[in-house]
Amino acid sequence: MESPVTAGGLRNTSVVVLTLDTSEVYIVVSLCSRTDTQVIYIDPTSGSLHHDRKLGYDVFHTQDEALNYITDDSKSVSKSTVYAKAILGYVVLGSIALLLVATKLSASIPYLPGGGCVYTISESKWIKISLQIPQPQGKGEVKNIQELTELEIDGKHYFCETRDITRPFPSRFPLRNPDDEFVWNGWLSFAFKKIGLEHHCVILLQGFAEYKTFGSLGQQEGIVALIARRSRLHPGTRYLARGLNSCYSTGNEIECEQLVWVPKRSGQNVPFNIYIWRRGTIPMWWGSELKMTAAEATIYVSDRDPYKGSARYYQRLSKRYDTRNLGVASANQNKSGLVPIVCVNLLRNGEGKSESILVQHFEESLNYIRSTGQLPSTRIHLIHYDWHTSIRLKGEQQTIEGLWYHLKAPTISIGISEGDYQHSRQHIDDCEGEKIYNDDITGFFCLRVLQNGIIRYNCADSLDRTNAASYFGALQVFTEQCKRLGIILDNDLASDHNTRKHSFSDKAWKCFDMTFEEFKRSIILSPICQLAELFLIAGDIHATLYTGSKAMHSHILSIFSEEAAKAKQFSVAQNVKINLQRRYNNAVVDSSRQKQLEMFLGLRLFKHLPSVSIQPLHVPSRRSSFLLKPIASIDQYSDDGDSLLSFKQKNLIWISQQAADIIQLFVYLGEPCHVCQLLLTTSHGADDSTYPLTVDVRTGRDLDVLKLVLEGASIPRCPNGTNIMIPIPGAVSDEDMGLKTRANLHTPQTNPSFLYNFEGLEGELDFLTRVVVLTFYPAESTSSPVTLGEVEILGISLPWRDIFASEGPGLKLWEHVTNIKDNANSFTSKTGSNPDVFGLTNVVLPPIKCDTSRNAQVDLLSGEDIISRSNTQPMTEISLHDQCHDHKEETDSQRISKQDKIPSKTGTQHYISCFEILTAVDNKLGFVEAMKLEIERLRLNLSTAERDKALSSIGIDPATLDPNTLIEESYMSSLCKAANSLAILGQTSLEDKINGCIGLDPLDDNNDIDFWNINRIGEGCCGESCQVHAEHLTLTLTSTLTSTSSESIFICSSCKRRVCRICCAGKGAILLRNKIGGSNYNDLDGVICKLCCQDSVLDALTLDYIRVLVSQLRNSQAEAATCKAFSRVVGKNYISGKKESFNKFEVGKVCELLHNEEESLAEFPFGSYLHSIETASGSAPPLSLLAPLSSGFQQSYWRAPASNSCAELVIVLGNLSDVSGVILLVSPCGYSMSDAPTVQIWTSNKIHKEERSCVGKWDVRSLLTSSPELCGPEESGKEGQIPRHIRFDFRNPVCCRLIWIKLTIQQVVSSSVSFGKDFNLLSFDEEPPSGPGRRASIGGTSESDPCVHAKRILVVGCPVKEDVGRNFEHANSIRNWLEKAPLLNRYKVPIDSEKLIDNDLVLEQNISPSSPLSAGFRLDGFSAIKPQLTHSPYSNRNSLDPSSIVFEHRYLSPAVLHIQVSALQVLPSY
Ligand SMILES: [Zn+2]
Ligand SMILES: [Zn+2]
To answer: Where do the coiled-coil regions begin and end (predicted)?
Structure first.
């Protein structure tokens, strides 16, 4: 056996969590599977993880090197250091980040056949990190977060770093493709996936893994390992998780595996065999109620559909244990060709026993499943074996014999899997059987026999009886497993060496036929006792996980050992004690443990942690950001203000030189992002008025285009060191703003939008924002200098690294956006409609399921016709409907004639038409109609501004259509409440649906009726085939137009009438009804008609639908912005063409050669431009010059407009760096004498042109004669070679942040060009050999209009480690000057009353006229929660799944707090 120390790699994984005295936290990881060390930085403000993959920056050769770098060679003190063996998870929960690490491990199975060590966590630690972000959290949340960290991890969780162990051994899948059913830290590990370090967090399983060595003749002959995986699909504790749940899984569901192998010296093949079984509660809907008074819990079986989902449960088993098609002879001689599932039911079945009701239903459930024929390839067999009764009547020995009798046939038929591990793949073709190999192992597995099907044990809880029975079942298999491996357990044979060989021809499974005494006499007992020990520990662990206490009745497992009798005596007392313990746990702790488990798995977070965001924001103002312009401080040694951006200086009080009018910070962000929040740290000295009063925010991609996004935001006065978060909305286009102002003329007072934001003026999103200008205005009264503290900018960045590398979440996003674009193309080409209206955003996530037939109907509704009809002949129309059944032919023919019409309406026109239809009968719109109209607008993708414009054009004041104002205030809150519970129910149902699909083929959705089923304006009841007619009364005018006889007919589950689609309520109504009925079903089966559904529920569905559409609109805007950002970096065509063009030539190698072991300093997204760059139409975007080499089309390149003879690129480097040169990659068209540029380069640190210094000027034309390969188009077939390039080396490395490159072409070609003597000669060392016979030709652009062009620009050199803390001491001395007794211009306004009105907390503060003049107030401790969940999910994609989201709505649309201020004038009473 190999040493466990080296198992799986060259070294053991080491994790060091370092907290510096600045309270910054670094995770330093050296994985066993790698040779280097990675550093992950936890952002101290938002908690987001950072890893840039830069050698010498966050990648190091050794752990010591990394630690020295972080602690600056021990100059900065670390506050605490935690040494760990593995990372188990990380998550940010509001203002707290939690890092879970394993500090002690035990090697439970040190060396699996083929390698890999299974470690059980024996000690773990949650590291709590308080974040700077001021997120208010309610007490309940804080308590829940605390409870999450109290979840028991130690001793009950295990992992393997190098092999997949979520599936039966040996897994057919690689490590990083685990079976989700058994992964317990999927949610907790997401943060590492997001930064591309998924290997740095292990895949955690719950349950038990342990091994024992055994031998018959005093020497080690075999190893047996027991692995028990607990399913996470129905997590929870005894009385809360029983029977089936909506994920089609049962409580306490465990897969067990008994692996036996013969250890060999390395290099020898390792033979092994495996036996798998399953245990869990009965798969149907049942439960038990615990009453403190009664001795036993009362068992009940659900009245409604108790076997719902049972078939899906067995399907999952059948899928997992079906080995019929793997091309290997099954172990069994099962002629039927089915997958057997044998259920061994150990419940009491006597008269009057509470469990007998379960036994009956179990039987019935299987009959029911058989009758539906849902499991054609599975044979389910049920064996009843009343364990307790048998023991009482016949004693233990006979009970065991009886069990063996029942198990014999199924065990033999299902069989075991057998094979061996071969160390080399050399003879792989010679092996017969199934071969399994992947990158995780060096050799391969060859399986010659496979287990097909499974035995499943159950008692009531899948605990004590289950553990005992499965042990005696597994024991029989164990003897057979040993025999097949040539390990002798037979007493007679073992004592006689000469007959050893004889055992191989011995009868298979012979122990099944033995009596208990025979078995005990003939088998060597020590290995059996070893096995029993494993089962004893496993039983205790499963019992503890489920009930919080150890297993009972487990003495029977020791029946073969000497102390069996003693154990029995002892265990009676033990059982009583455990029973009491369980009852206490069940009654008191269960619900809290249930919640813990759900949070650990990331389930129901919207309930447990409603204010927590799914993904923390980035802080691009940290690390490599800087101020473009210095700002002058009173402290002459100050660092130009850069320290204002540094977290290391968070206690800094920066003081302006004199009383300044304004202070302006030009912040250049470290990476492009959409800016969402500004975080200020209040900083002042003696007088709190020195801190600015208001701030303006401008943002832009570069200095040339800056938009004002926030004006005059007031900064409250608060104590020194307070963090204030100011949300930043996106820029609003002037046009929208203009429209809005005009439209709002009549309604100067906006209404609070309790239902949804009707005004909805939403800002633009720009993921390429790079420059943020903050303008601070001091209080007018002050004449003292202005003070500032740390300034942080938070935003959402796109996963650029993944996007360029085509992997991880970035790849998902890329593909998604690509699809949008493809759809957009097909959409516009198909319909040919006005692209301005049906632009890109229209097609993103088409609103719910708009199947084409229904769309056709919608388009049919060509408004003009209806309007003209309704205006001119309303009477005819109404009569038409009244007699519609009699005139069916007529209506049909009308319908056809309308279908022939090609819809040609724009969105606005269509919207107006709808408005006119709705107002045709009654001039005033009601609440429901107003909502319907809004739905129509959102489906048409009209912005609120467009809507208001349209309405104003026909003389309607948009405010009169605001649903928020059309509803009784008393109804408002109940409606909001109903909509909120819909949102929660919908999300719960979706979560279950997604989890329920794990291990199964997805169900076909019957999507005729969706969650809301909101019919569009003009849709009506289909008529005679519907018995409900819920919709024809309100929309008389148009119902006939859309009636189709082919519509599906449903049966209302409440009144049992036949009902058409239009007259059905959405599926959400069923969830609400179930909830009120107290059912725990979260499914959407059945329909309910609108007449059986309360109006308030229908209104809630409509409201929820509006919220969904608003959110979708915002989503599609975000996606359009993403698409735009992509196209600005890699070019428009590249997005759709990426897959074809992506050419993975050895980019790394090429880069290495180009950089000459230096780093690329200006690569996007870190590097960017300071100014906009003029670009020819049809050229690649300017940012493509800085994009990674592998991105973009091979043939594309950047060009300046032909009219410009000169282009100046001001490149901002990713870091302050020592730059040694610039490399220009030649465009594929090559250079000619007319377009070869003169290149002049300057460097500087700040934006002022005067401060830059020139480092050289080079003329490329003079090169062309000596290097003819630079001329003319690139030859094809040169991929993989170093691209053509020119290197401009600096004489000495220059330390700078900005590089100015001026490319000039001479419009008049002059023949006399020479190098100035001051300039460096070019270096051609790196040139590729020139191809033979190349012709120096004119470049790709036409000779008549040469232009400036290039493929890429690389700036090379080494980043400089920035030392922002250098003025720390000096700043401290200033602090002394500041620190006098604070004079605060504030007084506390007492809260007079605090009351709960409905669900809202109302605080009342009364300010009496006699109180001092007050300019504002701040509510301390106010926790304004914007819940995660604002509406039900709109697709099968889980919007709360961190892997599927880039943009979170709460950041895109900041929360609004409405404060009502009333001034009461009390009249003096005379
Ligand atoms: Zn109907
Ligand atoms: Zn009904």
So the answer is: none
Q: Do 209 and 229 form a contact (C-beta atoms < 8 A)?
A: no
d(CA 1062, ligand 1 centre) in Å: 6
* Centroid of ligand 1 to alpha carbon of 71 (angstroms): 73
- The answer to whether 101 touches 87, Cβ cutoff 8 Å, is yes
- d(CA 1031, CA 1061) in angstroms, rounded, equals 10
Say if residues 1296 and 1254 touch (Cβ distance below 8 Å): no
Structure tokens at 323: 């080995």
Distance CA 1286, CA 1284 (A): 7
Q: For residue 142, how many other CB atoms are within 10 A of its CB?
A: 15
Dist. CA 1313 → ligand 1 center (Å): 86
For residues 1172 and 702, the answer to whether their CB atoms sit within 8 Å is yes
Q: What is the pLDDT of residue 889?
A: 36
Rounded to 5°, the CA angle 834-835-841 comes to 130
Q: Which residue, 558, 691, 670, is CA-closest to 622?
A: 670
SS (H, E, C) 973-990: HHHHHHHHHHHHHHHHHH
How many angstroms separate the alpha carbon of residue 1089 from the centre of ligand 2? 4
DSSP 250: B
Q: How far is the CA of 1056 from the centre of ligand 2 (A)?
A: 6
Nearest ligand, CA of residue 1015? 1
Contact present, 1450 and 1431 (Cβ < 8 Å): no
- pLDDT at position 1216 is 87
Ligand nearest to C-alpha 1053: 2
Q: How far is the CA of 1028 from the centre of ligand 1 (A)?
A: 5
Nearest of 1216, 1217, 1361 to residue 75 by alpha carbon: 1361
DSSP 513: G
Distance 1100 CA to ligand 2 centre (A): 18
d(CA 303, CA 173): 42
SS3 380: strand
| The model scores a pTM over 0.90 | no
Say whether 698 sits in a helix, a strand or coil.
strand
| In contact, 548 and 582? CB cutoff 8 Å | yes
Backbone torsions φ then ψ of 69, nearest 5 degrees? -65, -45
**Count of positions (residues) in the chain:** 1470
pLDDT value of position 653? 79
d(CA 640, CA 1362): 14
399 neighbors 390 (Cβ within 8 angstroms): yes
Protein residues within 5 Å, CB atom, of ion ligand 2 = 1052, 1054-1055, 1089, 1092
For the stretch 933-959, what's the b/e string if a residue is b when 16 or more beta carbons lie within 10 angstroms of its beta carbon? bbbbbbbbbbbbbbbbbbbbeeebebb
Chunk the chain into consecutive blocks of 10 residues (it has 1470) and report each block's average pLDDT, rounded to whole numbers: 43 94 93 94 93 87 92 76 96 94 96 94 96 80 90 94 95 94 95 91 96 75 94 84 87 95 86 96 86 69 86 94 77 68 93 87 94 91 94 93 96 94 88 88 92 94 89 95 88 57 64 92 89 92 84 80 62 70 65 86 89 85 80 70 78 77 90 92 79 92 91 83 85 63 45 74 86 90 80 90 75 73 44 32 33 31 31 31 35 37 66 86 82 91 87 89 86 87 89 90 75 84 82 48 60 89 90 73 76 91 92 85 86 55 51 71 90 89 88 82 90 90 89 89 87 90 84 69 85 91 74 39 37 36 70 88 54 54 54 56 63 55 60 77 72 64 64
Output phi, psi for 976, to 5 deg.
-60, -40
d(CA 1345, CA 1428): 57
**How far, in Å, are 1184, 1218, 1357, 1361 from residue 1292 at the CA level?**
28, 9, 11, 19
CA angle 1222, 65, 1359 (to 5 degrees): 20
Place of tokens 């189709």: 1044
